[in-house]
Every structure is written in C-alpha cells, then in structure tokens.
C-alpha cells in the first residue's frame, strides 16, 4: 500500500478516481513534502499491545520504518522503545478518526507500503443480554473503522501500483462462536470484505492478506470481560502471530491461519454443515 515516492511530482491523472486520490494525498501532506525514507513503511494499528505490538516489533527488526497507532500513548512508547517509530495516537471510534490517522501517516512518512489493521475489541456473553451500545461499539471498531481506514489509504497505493493491506481477523469469523455472536459477525464481515476487495484489486499490484488467528495470549480476553476458558484450541503467542504476518507479507499470501490446522473447522462447516454443528454442540 504505497503512495508515490517522497517528493515526486506528477500531472493530475485524467481518471476522476485517481484525481481524487491525488487530491487526498496532497491534503494529507500539508504544505511541504514529507521526509524521505529509503526504508519500507508500515502503519500498524492496535500497536499499543498484543498482536499489534508484536507485529510492530517484528517489522522493526526487519528494518522497516514504522508508524504506530493506538489509543494509549504510553503503551505505544513501550512498543516503539529502541526503534525510530513514529507514534500516531488515535481513536478510530471517533468521528473522522480513520481519515485523520491516514492523513497524519501520509504526512509523516510520505507513503504507506503495508497497513496492518490490528485494532479491535471483543465482548463475551449471551447475545440476549448484550447492550445495544456494545453491539454498536464492537461492530464499529472491529469492522466499520477498519473499512474506513482502508478506504482512506487505498487510493494512494493503487495509484503507485504496489503495497498490501493486512486485516487481522479471527477463527470466530470463520465458524461462529457461541456467546461471541457480534464479534463473530464483525470478523466474518472482515473476511468477506478481504475476499471481495482482493478481487477488485486484481491487476493493481496491491494485495490483501487476511490473518486468521485462534485465541492469542493477550489482554484481549480480560478487556472483553471474560477470560478464555476453552481447552481447545490452546492460545498461541502474539509473537507467533506476528511472525505469520511477516511471512504473509514477504510471500504475498492471501490468507494465513495460526495455527494452520484452524483451516479444518471452516472446511468441515462448508462441506458437512450438519456434522459441523453436531461437533460444535458437543465440544463447544
């Protein structure tokens, strides 16, 4: 997902969509050209902790220039420790949050080669008791905000013909998890969006990767209000997910599951839905 190189000039394209992209990028840059960098640039959201923080550290170790976003500046500083990362604290739930973050990122770095959209929240409990405000909050942060952010950064990277969008999904979006109905719905929507967008971007040089982890050892479960209690699948480490993201970007993969066997439940569900539901009712 790169924009044009720093300091480059060009004639406005005749195509209206490209013209809009150029105008948006020019507005994001402000009055002067962004600083030049020879390193590839990654914008990572949700970088305050968990998968986002681990992914940021993995890309920093690989020599990338990082733009880190999250709501907690103090924790962003911890993630960025020892690196030259640029901190862009942002609340993607706020009005215009996605647009303001995209503009700030382009203004700071001049381009975005990879967007890792890792920001999100959870909620656990019976759907019948879920407050309407929490339904809206989960859907907006886990789905809507991601779509808006992708929409903001996509035109510039399509214009330059290269880059990658990495969407952090969940196995819950593939199979549906009881008492995580809205979270499952949001992640399923993200998976469908990834597939549809991938088809739209064919031939543009811009790729879309859907990362599908099972449970991960982070503060996610505490923040959602219920610890992880299932015996399987066992939680994996944020570092393992970060390594999978790194490999997926390097190898231009469309999908990556962590662990890899998590592809099986989705296949069983697609091929034999009755058997799948019997197994789900038995094992939970």
TrEMBL record:
Chain intervals for the UniProt region annotation (Disordered): 1-39
Domain Ketoreductase residue range list: 40-219
Keywords: Oxidoreductase
Biased composition (Low complexity): 16-31
InterPro entries found in the cross-reference section: KR_dom (IPR057326), NAD(P)-bd_dom_sf (IPR036291), Sc_DH/Rdtase_CS (IPR020904), SDR_fam (IPR002347)
Family: Belongs to the short-chain dehydrogenases/reductases (SDR) family.
Annotated protein name in UniProt: SDR family NAD(P)-dependent oxidoreductase
